[in-house]
Amino acid sequence: MLQPQRTKFRKMHRARGEFHGKATRGAELAFGSYGLKAITGGEITARQLEAARRALTHAVQRMGKSWIRIFPQKAITRKSPEVPMGAGKGAVEFYVALVKRGTIIFELDALPEAVAKEAFRLAAHKLPVTTKFVKALHAHTL
Questions:
Q1: Which of 137, 99, 98, 103 is nearest to 27 (CA)?
Q2: 44 band by pLDDT with thresholds 50, 70 and 90
């Protein structure tokens, strides 16, 4: 699973309002001809991202090239169940990627459009955000 090798600070503020608004960076296709774009904002955990990536690679069956455009770098902490208030912040449990609406999550290239569409459909089922299929103006169809 994806997680940072090292961070400046181990624990972060939750800041739940960060994924409101529209993405200004990472909102255009940069590498491939087809992309999976988030329509709603939210947090995608490293586990969800890995599940979607596996569904995607399984569907394309060694055809084409794929890119993951987001990275889970925000640490989410949890305290053990039934622990009283106080005694500091909990331990880091997992990492999430903050996604605003309009962010490209995955990209694919060098494969037929129908295969890419089906692969993104399968991957989208693993993600907690609503997504849509996007195509570049210069799409390399086979």
A1: 103
A2: very high
